[in-house]
Amino acid sequence: MGWSYLELSMADLMKLIENFIDMLILASGYQSSGRLAHWDSHNIIKCFQWALFLENVSKKLTSSVDYEASVKELDTALYELTCNPHFPEGLARLSCSALGQSRDLLLERLVHTLPLRESHLKAIMRASVEMDFSKLEMLDNDCVDVYVENLMRIPLNGLSLSESRNFGVDSDVPYQDAVRSGRRDDLSDVDFSASVVRQLGRRQLSVSCSSAVEAGLEKLSKIIGRSMNDEVECTSNAEPRKHSACQIAEELPVDSIILSGWRSKTLSYMLDKRTIRLLSGASLICSAPEDQWAQTFERLDTSAENDDTCEIIELLLLGCIADRWSALIEHLMSVSYDSPTVSMLYHQVFNLQPGNSVNLPLKGLVNPKEKSVVEYLEVLLSRQINQLWKLSPVLAAVAIPSWSQLFRSYLRELEGQIRGTCIATRYCSCRADAAEHIVEHRECEVAERIWCLYIFHISKSHAASVTTTFK
Questions:
Q1: CB burial class (10 A; 0-12, 13-18, 19+) of residue 421?
Q2: How far apart are the first and last CA of the chain?
Q3: Closest C-alpha among 378, 366, 341, 346 to residue 469
Q4: pTM (two decimals)
Q5: Which of 155, 319, 390, 456 is surrounded by the most beta carbons within 10 Å?
Q6: 3-class SS at 155?
Q7: Residue 132: exposed, middle, or buried by beta-carbon count in 10 A (0-12, 13-18, 19+)?
Q8: Contact predicate 14/22, CB 8 Å
Q9: Distances in whole angstroms, Cα of residue 468 to Cα of each of 309, 327, 360, 362
Q10: Max alpha carbon distance in the chain (Å)?
Q11: Which DSSP helix (H) or strand (E) runs through 121?
């Protein structure tokens, strides 16, 4: 039967919807270039009016059986639009019925943007008040008193993070219906302000939960840090270990105090507030289709300074292992901490076969997302592998899978440091043996990086119940 909605053609409606999608992207706080989007109350009102128009069209289409064919045709066109690989994932469920919640969808993007600047918040509040006042002025001379009275009756309790935030679930009584029925005991007179209050309440609840998690992580980090310090103190007060003459002549094992220090540094990085935030962001970015996240990083890399490039690499590495972070921490806390020699660690790490890490449960199984991120990193780091030295040793150890060419490049970089052949880029002050021309590393960053590789690729966990999924 085809399109039967005479007030607006299908082509014109799709253009309006595409323009609204552009508004939603800008409402998220950033332009397509990555720069901050600046909003004022005037532009927010225009967007609200646009959203209200789409809501009315959606409600007319879905409220009559005469438009069933039109609704199906519109849903088909919207499905084809969302199948485009460049279409925002957060709007993937866009449909005719979803357009009936266009204001909530727009408001959600405006309120939950990060960072929520003061000027941005004021513009949202001013726009919501002006929109409600424009309606009240047509109904009541005492519009200010009516507005304040209704505003005070907005329920502030019952907010829940579990509520759906896709296209909104709080459907206010339509303003036109309230006018026709003569009902003035609902919140339809302040529906824009009520929606803003609800969204701000949800945002505040989200922030409170995030703050509680951050505070918990900080306390956990301090408790573990104190525990490790006590462990180091007990070790230092214990009777010194006796070494044979052969050991002293060849190579002494790494001191347990040094090992505890490395573990403490590793855990501090993994539990750090900054790391957790980057991990969350990296997980979100890398969850998008490959061409979308690749385009995002390419834009960042184009405008990045040297330090910014390092952060981009850190984000990519975190994106590789975001879903395994908790298991990585569990593994770190459960492995054996015998005192090995650096040469023993070196030989075991450098003899590791590609993709043969003992903690890899299903050998040969490669995560497609991880593979694409690692391949992107290989190109990015092809001429600047030294950037890895600016990042925590544990990050390179856990994020670069042993099957990758990047892992081999990293090992070659470490080998140059071990043998002292990278004279121009030495990362430690360890001296080479005059006779053997081999640098002995025991307390430096080179030794720490080799230890991290050993812990996460070779050392087995004592906790048999913990399932490890490291590469």
A1: exposed
A2: 56
A3: 366
A4: 0.60
A5: 319
A6: coil
A7: buried
A8: no
A9: 31, 6, 7, 11
A10: 99
A11: helix 118-136
Q: Which amino acid is at 12?
A: D
pLDDT digits (tens, 9 = 90+) for 283-331: 988 888 888 888 888 877 766 565 678 889 999 999 989 888 988 888 8
Instruction: Please report, for residues 12, 70, 125, the alpha-carbon distance to residue 6 in angstroms, rounded to integers and kept in the order given.
Output: 12, 10, 36
What is the distance between the alpha carbons of residues 34 and 356, in angstroms, rounded to a whole number? 40
- Nearest alpha-carbon partner for 24 in 137, 141, 112: 112
The values of phi and psi at residue 2, to 5°, are: 85, -165
> What's the Cα-to-Cα distance from 415 to each of 99, 262, 381, 426, rounded to whole Å?
59, 20, 17, 12
| Angle of CA points 75, 76, 78, to nearest 5° | 65
CA distance 383 to 131: 56
**Rounded-to-5 percentages of helix, strand, coil across the chain:** 65, 0, 35
Q: The tokens of 263 are what?
A: 């573990």
With 50 as the cut, is the pLDDT of residue 68 above it? yes
Q: What are the tokens at 393?
A: 């040793």
Is 132 within 8 Å of 192 (Cβ atoms)?
A: yes
Report how far apart, in Å, the C-alpha atoms of 313 and of each of 355, 379, 410 are: 22, 11, 14
What is the amino acid identity at position 75?
D
- Nearest 5 degrees, angle CA 177-CA 178-CA 181? 85
In this predicted model, what pLDDT tens digit does every residue of 362-386 receive, in sequence order? 444 577 888 899 999 999 888 888 8
Establish how many alpha carbons lie within 13 A of residue 12's alpha carbon, considering only the half-sphere containing its beta carbon: 7
Structure tokens that stand for 1 in this block: 């039967």
Paired tokens of 318: 């975190």
CB 197 within 8 A of CB 156: yes
CA distance 279 to 282: 5
- Sequence-distant (≥ 6) Cβ neighbours of residue 114 within 8 angstroms: 29
